[in-house]
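Hey, quick one: can you model this chain's 3D structure?
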Amino acid sequence: MTIWLLSDEDSQQKSKQKSELNKASDYAMTDFTMTVMDQEGNPSRIIIGKEMAHYPEDDSTEVTLPSVQFIEPGKETWLISSDKGTTQGKGDDILLVGNVIITQKENPDIELRTEKLNLDTLHNTAYTDLAVSIKSPHGSTDSIGLHAALEDKMINLHSRVKGHFDAPPIQ
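Sure thing. Here's the predicted structure for all 171 residues.
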């Protein structure tokens, strides 16, 4: 029984590696800037990246070094970057991996960092189970896991939350 399980696991890994090698894109871009429009025809996202490839086999898209601006008229513009981004279909759910940084264009002194982030662009939420670090001019906070409602500017830190805050000088 053990030999069969080991053999089956090995063949699954080989099958996965073979399928990844055979994965062919139907289109790709390098050093690109792409603007995503909302239903009214206004820019809602500006995506800049080093490389992007779409794979029709599973309707997935992979982006190397993505940097995204989330634009909403009358509200702060969120900036999110990472080493790699993947999505499927229309791109409503995006997985960002490696050196994920979130900040606001109008307030770049506050920065959130993690290694993996799930981003739901329909509901403007972000989620991770990994370590998170938030830095500001007056302190820092670390935690394991987070759920953020970007539109409401609300962040829920899941566990092992610790931080320090230095009150700004009185002016």
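One thing worth noting: The helical segments are 2-22.
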